[in-house]
Amino acid sequence: MLARSAVRALAAPSSRLFSSSAARNTKVAVLGAGGGIGQPLSLLLKSDPLVTSLSLYDIRGAPGVAADVSHVDTGSEVTGYAADQLDQALEGVKVVVIPAGVPRKPGMTRDDLFNTNASIVRDLATAVARVAPEAHILVISNPVNSTVPIVAATLEKAGVFNPARLFGITTLDVVRATRFLAGVVGAQPADTPVTVIGGHSGPTIVPLLSQSSHGKGVTGEAYEKIVHRIQFGGDEVVKAKDGAGSATLSMAYAGAKFTNSLLRGLNGEKGVVTPTFVKSPLFADQGIDFFATNVELGVNGVEKIHPIGALSAEEQKLLDACLPELKKNIAKGKDFAA
Ligand code: NAI
């Protein structure tokens, strides 16, 4: 017989990933559902009680993923859509998660993906603007620093851009920072949350360890090492997969985690705060109008953009290195969209 605690753990396998509040009708679409991220992300969203309906789209393979995932014994309905059914896939959706596009191979930067992914993301955003103009859009496709401005400009052209409803998913950087810090200080990740600001690529990823009770004690070589690992953790995965792609499973986890946070906010839960890359006034005077910081999520999406807070001297240096690179990445996205 299973011990009572084990039964409880089995009965609530996703309780650590998802917390649920009021259940509403919430249809979520995944565009790129057949891919390395899309498949496990679809599975995790199927196990989120806040998702009432799941719409899976890809240019290949989505109906198969949908048939598979739909047998999981949770309440949501799952439908798969083929390449020519994008509009149907988007009908009535409240949240659109986009992991469509090519991933990195060893030696590539996220910016190397620009040429392929820019047009994929633009075309998908055009369809969202047409069919589900009020949907919240969560962009996973890299380079996030450029693809988010592309989506914004595409929606703007269509006359439906609402900055409160567009998010670049930087949650994997937060998840990595939290996990790596826990390892360094010998604590549980639940006790070592780290705020990560800036963007989502190498030097634009700025972890604020000084704002964490465990992180502020990490100094010297250990500090340099953990910052490098947070900024370039994605490369570890690309290298280990040896040509087979980049992070998919941890990214699916991060994508599902962010989606759950947004749904909790949309359902009226108060105090849901997490870093995400959004249209932001914080550095707009320097020509950088998208930036990741802690954002409070609420019934309208972005409820409040938090300031970056106090930085250590090292973090100020990291931020100084981030800003010009981020500015370039944003401009590249805007130029493409124009
Ligand atoms: P993958 O190649 O395994 O899957 C991509 C999927 O997108 C494929 O199934 C493909 O058929 C589909 N696709 C391509 N064009 C499409 C279109 N026009 N409409 C719908 N679907 C389309 O790639 P993976 O590993 O899933 O990565 C996807 C993206 O996520 C990459 O750009 C990658 O760099 C990015 N990524 C982002 C992270 C983040 O932290 N934001 C972390 C890891 C990856």
TrEMBL record:
<feature type="domain" description="Lactate/malate dehydrogenase C-terminal">
    <location>
        <begin position="170"/>
        <end position="336"/>
    </location>
</feature>
<dbReference type="InterPro" id="IPR001557">
    <property type="entry name" value="L-lactate/malate_DH"/>
</dbReference>
<dbReference type="GO" id="GO:0006099">
    <property type="term" value="P:tricarboxylic acid cycle"/>
</dbReference>
<dbReference type="GO" id="GO:0030060">
    <property type="term" value="F:L-malate dehydrogenase (NAD+) activity"/>
</dbReference>
<dbReference type="GO" id="GO:0005739">
    <property type="term" value="C:mitochondrion"/>
</dbReference>
<feature type="binding site">
    <location>
        <position position="104"/>
    </location>
    <ligand>
        <name>substrate</name>
    </ligand>
</feature>
<dbReference type="InterPro" id="IPR015955">
    <property type="entry name" value="Lactate_DH/Glyco_Ohase_4_C"/>
</dbReference>
<dbReference type="Pfam" id="PF00056">
    <property type="entry name" value="Ldh_1_N"/>
</dbReference>
<dbReference type="GO" id="GO:0006108">
    <property type="term" value="P:malate metabolic process"/>
</dbReference>
<dbReference type="InterPro" id="IPR001236">
    <property type="entry name" value="Lactate/malate_DH_N"/>
</dbReference>
<protein>
    <recommendedName>
        <fullName>Malate dehydrogenase</fullName>
        <ecNumber>1.1.1.37</ecNumber>
    </recommendedName>
</protein>
<dbReference type="InterPro" id="IPR022383">
    <property type="entry name" value="Lactate/malate_DH_C"/>
</dbReference>
<dbReference type="InterPro" id="IPR010097">
    <property type="entry name" value="Malate_DH_type1"/>
</dbReference>
<comment type="subunit">
    <text>Homodimer.</text>
</comment>
<feature type="binding site">
    <location>
        <position position="142"/>
    </location>
    <ligand>
        <name>substrate</name>
    </ligand>
</feature>
<feature type="binding site">
    <location>
        <position position="251"/>
    </location>
    <ligand>
        <name>NAD(+)</name>
    </ligand>
</feature>
<feature type="binding site">
    <location>
        <begin position="32"/>
        <end position="38"/>
    </location>
    <ligand>
        <name>NAD(+)</name>
    </ligand>
</feature>
<keyword id="KW-0560">Oxidoreductase</keyword>
<feature type="domain" description="Lactate/malate dehydrogenase N-terminal">
    <location>
        <begin position="26"/>
        <end position="168"/>
    </location>
</feature>
<feature type="binding site">
    <location>
        <position position="117"/>
    </location>
    <ligand>
        <name>NAD(+)</name>
    </ligand>
</feature>
<dbReference type="InterPro" id="IPR036291">
    <property type="entry name" value="NAD(P)-bd_dom_sf"/>
</dbReference>
<dbReference type="InterPro" id="IPR001252">
    <property type="entry name" value="Malate_DH_AS"/>
</dbReference>
<feature type="binding site">
    <location>
        <begin position="140"/>
        <end position="142"/>
    </location>
    <ligand>
        <name>NAD(+)</name>
    </ligand>
</feature>
<feature type="active site" description="Proton acceptor">
    <location>
        <position position="200"/>
    </location>
</feature>
<feature type="binding site">
    <location>
        <position position="110"/>
    </location>
    <ligand>
        <name>substrate</name>
    </ligand>
</feature>
<keyword id="KW-0520">NAD</keyword>
<keyword id="KW-0816">Tricarboxylic acid cycle</keyword>
<feature type="binding site">
    <location>
        <position position="176"/>
    </location>
    <ligand>
        <name>substrate</name>
    </ligand>
</feature>
<comment type="similarity">
    <text>Belongs to the LDH/MDH superfamily. MDH type 1 family.</text>
</comment>
<feature type="binding site">
    <location>
        <position position="58"/>
    </location>
    <ligand>
        <name>NAD(+)</name>
    </ligand>
</feature>
<dbReference type="Pfam" id="PF02866">
    <property type="entry name" value="Ldh_1_C"/>
</dbReference>
